[in-house]
Specification:
heterodimer, A: alpha/beta, Rossmann fold, 6-stranded mixed beta sheet, 35% helix, 25% strand, B: mainly alpha, MetI-like fold, flat
């Protein structure tokens, strides 16, 4: 067990989390800590509940009428399911990047500026331009788009669009970034860029990524949580989970026998 | 079935060519008759449309023999009645179409002032805010509105709205004709609401959920998401929905025949009586007419004009809606 400062107090804690879609029990009694300034990978076969768990963390599941979430999830010790919680503020602190790049049908600049605008983060045009530029730079997109910030974002390639979506999330200055299979629609080169980016971003953000690719989990994450049929089977340091899994189900999955 | 299986098992599988002769002939004949029937039906529809368009065109050309094209398209005076007198040539009647176009435009503008906001707002409500229960209740009602015969709207306009407009405007000191463009336009607007709302509802619903999630994920509220992301994304399609509404408005006949005036005033005051292209076509062709007088032929020219205008509007509208759909499919 490493004793780096980040382990002292987890950024996010989940205790006894259950999720139901109508009667279907999608997530069962999940206890999981997410450490600050690390990449935590959620892996497991399709339908195992990993995306469902991710979407509990910024309450995106609230958008689904039939979805019911039980249990206790805390961000820095604050219950995010407290009725007094302001979803706008919660999602400003916990950003999200989706499976398919979903740039808004606006210009590149306006895509990045949208979050800061609704949260009132910039007081002047110049300040906004500064936020847009620095966010694009941190997402590794600045050099490619600096001359065409007013061009429509939908004209970018898939990999560029996904980095734009990351820039868009960063621009709100969240503490946590949730990524739901961010590379599943990208080619290997674009994927490599995003993975390199995650490595840099974890210095400033806490990252939780859902991925189908075990290689990706092994490459980018420090901690790995393995889900199977709604159970959190095993969680630990990525190296340990991949080399000495405790649970036989984990071993079967990472060696390719299930899923 | 059991026999076939037995035959296969027994190795006496029938040859592919060995279908009984009569059955095969019957099949071939049946297919041909069906194909012929289907093709003939669509041919009738297509030929009729082409025929109508051609007859409009030829009669219009005959009309233009009597009245110069320039006088027709740019004339400011419309009084076709003069031309039917025996001792006058057709060209001495006034066939300037501008007052009709202005009247049509005025009524359509009033109609869209009603139908645009009402249709869009109800589409936004249905697509984004309504619970499934409210939606299953409200949508059929809007569709019923679309099914009311326009003649019903017409007498509603004449008997209820026009007197109301007249009385209430006179109460505040305006002078109002009893066949005001306002009354006809407002009722026509109500008729067009379901057209605009149903197409706009489809278009808004087709905006991918991933865009909404992207906005929510950034912390946008529901109304911010609808206003900043969903509506701009749906804008081209919404434009198409509005254009289809306009096209319906300028082609609408029954309401204006009943509620708009007959005499052509060149005005943009909605409290005045104006007349429209469709009203004049009805007026030109009702009663006993000589079939080759410019007065009768003028109806064909108006018809062609209307046909071209709605065709162009519909094409643009459909192109907008289709291109928008392709973008997100």
């Amino acid at each position: 067990m490493d004793m780096s400062p980040s382990t002292i107090r987890p950024k996010l804690t989940a205790r006894g989390v259950n999720v139901f879609y109508d009667d279907a029990h999608a997530l069962k009694q999940v206890d999981l800590d997410i450490r600050a300034h690390e990449v935590t990978a959620l892996i497991g076969p399709s339908g195992c509940g990993k995306s469902t768990f991710l979407r509990c963390l910024n309450r995106m599941n609230d958008l689904i009428d039939i979805c019911r979430v039980d249990g206790d999830i805390r961000l820095d010790g604050e219950d995010i399911y407290d009725p007094a919680v302001d979803l706008v503020y919660l999602r400003a602190r916990i950003g999200m990047v989706f499976q398919k790049p979903n740039p808004f049908p606006k210009s590149i600049h306006d895509n990045v500026a949208y979050g800061p605008k609704i949260h009132g983060l910039a007081r002047s045009r110049a300040e906004m331009d500064e936020i847009v530029a620095s966010s694009l730079e941190r997402a590794g997109l600045w050099e490619e788009v600096k001359d065409r910030l007013d061009a429509p974002a939908t004209g970018l390639s898939g990999g560029q669009q996904q980095r734009l979506c990351i820039a868009r999330a960063i621009a709100v200055r969240p503490e946590v970034i949730l990524m739901d299979e961010p590379c599943s629609s990208l080619d290997p080169i674009a994927t490599a860029r995003i993975e390199a980016l995650m490595d840099e971003l974890k210095q400033n953000f806490t990252i939780v990524i859902v991925t189908h690719s075990m290689q990706q989990a092994a490459r980018v994450s420090q901690r790995t949580a393995f889900f199977h049929l709604g159970d959190l089977v095993e969680v630990g340091d990525t190296d340990t989970v991949f080399t000495q899994p405790v649970d036989p189900r984990t071993e079967s999955y990472i060696s390719g026998r299930i899923g | 079935m059991a026999q076939t299986v037995a035959a296969v098992r027994g190795g006496t599988r029938p040859s592919l060519m060995a279908a009984p002769e009569g059955r095969r002939a019957r099949q071939v004949l049946g297919e041909r008759v069906l194909l012929g029937l289907l093709a003939a039906s669509s041919l009738v529809a297509i030929l009729t449309t082409v025929g109508i368009a051609l007859s409009l065109l030829f009669e219009t050309l005959r009309f233009l023999d009597a009245v110069p094209l320039f006088d027709f398209l740019f004339g400011l005076n419309w009084s076709p009645q003069i031309a039917i007198r025996e001792d006058q040539v057709g060209s001495s009647g006034a066939f300037g179409v501008i007052p009709l176009l202005v009247g049509t435009g005025l009524i359509a503008a009033v109609a869209m002032t009603v139908a645009g906001p009402l249709g869009l707002l109800s589409a936004i409500y249905l697509a984004e805010y309504a619970s499934p229960r409210a939606r299953s209740f409200a949508k059929p009602i809007l569709e019923i509105l679309a099914g009311i015969p326009t003649v019903v709207y017409g007498f509603f306009a004449v008997l209820v709205v026009a007197p109301f407009v007249r009385d209430s405007s006179e109460a505040v000191g305006f002078e109002v004709s009893s066949e005001s463009a306002l009354a006809a336009g407002v009722v026509m607007g109500v008729m067009i609401v379901p057209i605009v709302s149903s197409i706009a509802d489809d278009v808004i619903s087709a905006v991918p959920q991933s865009l909404r999630e992207g906005a929510y994920g950034l912390g946008a509220t529901k109304s911010e998401t609808v206003r900043d992301i969903v509506l701009p994304a749906a804008l081209p399609g919404i434009g198409g929905a509005l254009l289809l509404g306009v096209s319906r408005a300028i082609g609408e006949t029954m309401i204006v025949v009943m509620a708009a005036g007959l005499s052509a005033h060149l005005t943009v005051n909605p409290l005045q009586a104006v007349t429209t292209v469709t009203v004049q076509m009805v007026a030109l062709l009702t009663g006993d007419q000589e079939f080759d007088s410019p007065k009768t032929l003028a109806a064909f020219a108006l018809g062609l004009l209307l046909f071209i205008a709605t065709l162009i509007l519909n094409l643009i509208a459909l192109m907008l809606v289709r291109r928008y759909r392709e973008r997100y499919d």
